[in-house]
Design a protein that fits this description.
With 339 residues, the protein is of the alpha/beta class. It has twelve helices and 13 strands.
């Protein structure tokens, strides 16, 4: 078979024109361009915010308030998905199985994410390591309250009164492993008081038990306890905060008085599935900052007696780690297990 030859050797295939080469190059760049555009366009569809508690409580209301502000900032619906159960671990674990694309977010809560897994023999996740921190946005301090019939007016008086009556005083909480439960157990470890835990279902029932003298004391949240404090039915002895609260300026800080070594706040924030891209986390943190500063959220904080507490992702993750370490020690020392 003869080889076809040109003037300078074997015949070559025709070279594509300059216009065709440019077209081919442009087509080759389309996938990368589309990917970049899809990232730049986030969000392009509704976002799901998993709230691991039932509708209607303080955490749910805060989740819905921040979801509405996020919707305004992002321009897409932020749909609240209440997934309660198993002390909040059910909904929290659900987020782990979602793609890290920013379309599934978690209302990060201390009990559901940090402390509840510590009480399980086979925890479904590590609350301090398995999620992507986006940022904290709210805090409220724990306040030590006694029924008006208890004849004490400060923390030292309570310790003395309780030690003279071992096992005679009861305290309420929202359940085993809840923040009110663990804070009081920490106090018992530090002081040697012998007081009996009586768990209730929900914050309203916990407070009503103390108001009705079914129990004599509790650690409540300032945000939900204020009506009972203002009515004189419950007496505040101290708050577990770094400084006095402007809502209760005459009530001492148990941290300032060295009774606690750190605050025991109830906090909320936003988290996501593991391995979210850093750029996406930064974008959402920026949006969260704007949401917290909105007039509507400022009004929400004032109405609910809570405080804005915006942090960057690194600080929020550090809070998870410190909280996990602190409460793991209490849970081990007091042999607290989930029922």
């Amino acid at each position: 078979m003869k080889t076809l030859r040109g003037v300078h050797g074997p015949a070559a295939l025709p070279r594509p024109s300059l216009a065709r080469r440019r077209l081919l190059a442009a087509m080759a760049s389309l996938p990368a361009l589309a990917l970049a555009q899809s990232r730049d366009a986030y969000p392009s569809r509704p976002i799901r915010l998993v709230v691991p508690v039932p509708p209607g409580g303080p955490a749910d209301l805060a989740g819905r308030a921040i979801a509405e502000r996020l919707r305004e900032e992002l321009g897409q619906p932020v749909v609240v998905d209440n997934r309660a159960g198993a002390a909040g671990t059910l909904g929290t674990a659900n987020v782990l199985q979602s793609p890290p694309d920013g379309y599934t977010l978690l209302l990060s809560l201390p009990s559901a994410q940090i402390t509840a897994p510590l009480m399980l023999d086979k925890p479904p996740f590590d609350g301090a390591k398995d999620f992507t921190a986006i940022g904290q946005f709210l805090r409220t301090s724990a306040v030590l309250l006694v029924n008006k019939s208890v004849p004490v007016r400060d923390f030292e008086g309570l310790v003395s009164y309780a030690k003279q009556r071992p096992g005679k005083l009861n305290y309420s909480s929202t359940g085993i492993g809840s923040n009110p439960h663990l804070v009081m157990e920490l106090v018992k470890l530090r002081t040697g008081m012998d007081i009996v835990h009586v768990p209730y279902k929900g914050g309203a029932a916990m407070l009503q038990a103390a108001v009705g003298n079914e129990v004599q004391l509790l650690f409540g949240e300032i945000s939900t306890s204020m009506p009972w404090i203002q009515s004189g039915r419950l007496t505040p002895l101290g708050i577990v905060s770094a400084k006095r609260s402007p809502l209760l300026p005459d009530v001492p800080s148990l941290v300032e008085d060295k009774i606690f070594d750190a605050p025991a706040d109830f906090w909320m924030g936003l988290a996501g599935p593991p391995r979210m891209p850093a750029g996406l986390v930064k974008q959402l943190n920026h949006v969260l900052a704007k949401a917290v500063q909105s007039p509507e959220m400022k009004q929400f904080f004032q109405k609910t007696a809570t405080e804005p507490a915006f942090t960057d992702p690194g600080s929020f993750e550090a809070l998870w780690q410190s909280e996990q370490h602190r409460w793991a020690e209490v849970i081990r020392a007091r042999h607290i297990r989930a029922e």
